[in-house]
Amino acid sequence: MKKEDITVIEKLLEKLGDIKVNSANQSDFNVFTALGIETKEVLICRLLGTILQPNGSHQLGILPIKSFLENVLGVKKDDYDNCEVILEEQIKDDRRVDIAIYIDNMVYPIEVKIYAGDQKNQITDYYHYYDKNKLLNNNNLIFYLTPNGHHPSKSSCGELNIDKEIRCLSFTEDVKKWLETLEKSSTSENFSCILKQFEGVIEKMAKNEKNFDEIIDAVNLENDDNVTALTHIFNSQEVLENKFRELYICRLLDKCKLQNDGYKYEIKLYPNEGRVNNIADIYKNDKLLAHIKYETNLYLTVAENCKVKRRSHEWGPEHNWHYIRREKDQKIIFNKPFSNTPPLSFSDEFINFIEILNDLDFC
Q1: How many CA atoms lie within 13 A of 3 on its CB side?
Q2: What percentage of the chain has pLDDT greater than the value 90?
Q3: What residues pair up with 153 in beta bridges, in sequence order?
Q4: Within a 10 A sphere around the Cβ of 298, how many other Cβ atoms?
Q5: Which residue in 80, 89, 266, 328 has the fewest CB atoms around it within 10 Å?
């Protein structure tokens, strides 16, 4: 690698380091964010579709669909009883529209995009299919729903007029306000809780979007030197991940006081060529006691000829393994170490690691 490329990489990393990452409020448990649905369009659409169904179990009847049509899509009807909500409606050439709302023999098609890119002629194909079948709504609109309400790509729109034939909607403004309205109207405590948690998903979605925008601005992809530097980084991903894993485990050794009750614990890293998902061995008074491994999460397994002498933590009755956790009882995603939220840090504290080791003994 050229010295100039290294200089550019250093400057890029410095810029990225200056970005203050916005994290969603973690004070309240949210089942949807725990499942990570803020990045999964299909699950988001299913959740929206369930709330919109006029005969749904939410006990609000036509109110959700009526409020959505009037306040989000800007559509007013005399009668909402004949509404139908279809998810993943298949049209020509196996195209699938995320959400199609039918009322009075008209359709209001909604394409939902969170982080996925547009397909070529995608919005154009939707428009012409419904227009040809004389189903398109009176306003001749395709609705395009994204976290911040941005426009679809030109390659997806084709010859369509983005300002006249496509209406852009946002989760953070349009959908969140609609959910807040429903929450006030709901008499079901369970349904209100679901709406509140969905709002939390949207807040996290918005923060992720803001983070991405700041990162894109910082790296300035129009600069050829920056693109070259990023290419070097991406091509080195596997090497970087392996090195980070090694350093992180070394820090685990430093952080945990491995001298306890007269026992001396020692961690020995596997050599790179034999590592795979084995990270290190743990020795107690120079005898092999356990292994540190990962598949998805970082965990500890009991070595052969050793046993769990007491199950004071999370040892399963038939499984001689235990997750290694960090602050706030968080598992450590180790197959993709740079995907943890919040990010892994060498200042991480580890929970009850010595106590876990003290659960083990030799047979």
Answers
A1: 0
A2: 18
A3: none
A4: 25
A5: 328
Pull the structure tokens for residue 174.
């349009």
User: Which tokens is 112 given?
Assistant: 């939902």
Closest CA to 334 of 300, 293, 301: 293
Please give the Cα distance from 249 to 336 (Å, whole number): 15
- Residue with token string 């001689």: 320
Q: In the prediction, which pLDDT does 343 show?
A: 84
| Residue 273 CA to its chain's centroid (Å) | 32
Token pair belonging to 126: 């939707």
Give the β-pairing of 263-269 and 278-284: antiparallel
Q: Which of 350, 333, 352 is nearest to 341 (CA)?
A: 333
- For residue 15 the two structure tokens come to 């810029």
Backbone angles phi, psi at 186, to 5 degrees: -75, 140
At position 76, the amino acid (one-letter code) is K
| 3-class DSSP assignment, residue 6 | helix
pTM for this predicted structure:
0.65
Amino acid at 192: S
Mean of all residue pLDDT scores within the chain: 83
- Which one, of 64, 32, 33, lies nearest residue 49 by Cα? 64
| Residues 238 and 268 sit within 8 Å (Cβ to Cβ) | no
Pairwise CA distance, residues 128 & 351, whole Å: 58
Task: Give pLDDT tens digits for 68-96.
Answer: 999 999 988 888 888 899 999 998 888 89
114-162: pLDDT as tens digits: 877 888 999 999 998 888 888 887 778 899 999 888 899 999 998 888 8
Instruction: Fill in the DSSP letter of residue 341.
Output: S
164: alpha, beta or left, given left = phi > 0 and alpha = psi -120 to 50? alpha
